[in-house]
Amino acid sequence: MNRVVLWLSRDSAARPANARVHGLGFCEIMPAAFVLRPAGSEDYLFMHFHDPVQVCIDGELRDVPAHTFFIWTPGTRHHFGHPGRPWKHSWIHCAGDAIATDIAGSGLPLGQQVTLPDASLTDRYLRSIHAEIQAHTEPDPVILAHLFAIWIREMQRVADPGQEATRIADPFVAVRRYIEENLAQPITLKALAGQANLSVSQFSAEFKRHFGTSPIDYVLGQRLQQATYFLRDHNLTVSEVARRVGFNDPFHFSRQFKKRQGISPLRYRRKGLAAPTAKPG
Question: What is the tens place of the pLDDT at every residue in 215-226?
Answer without folding.
Answer: 999 999 999 999
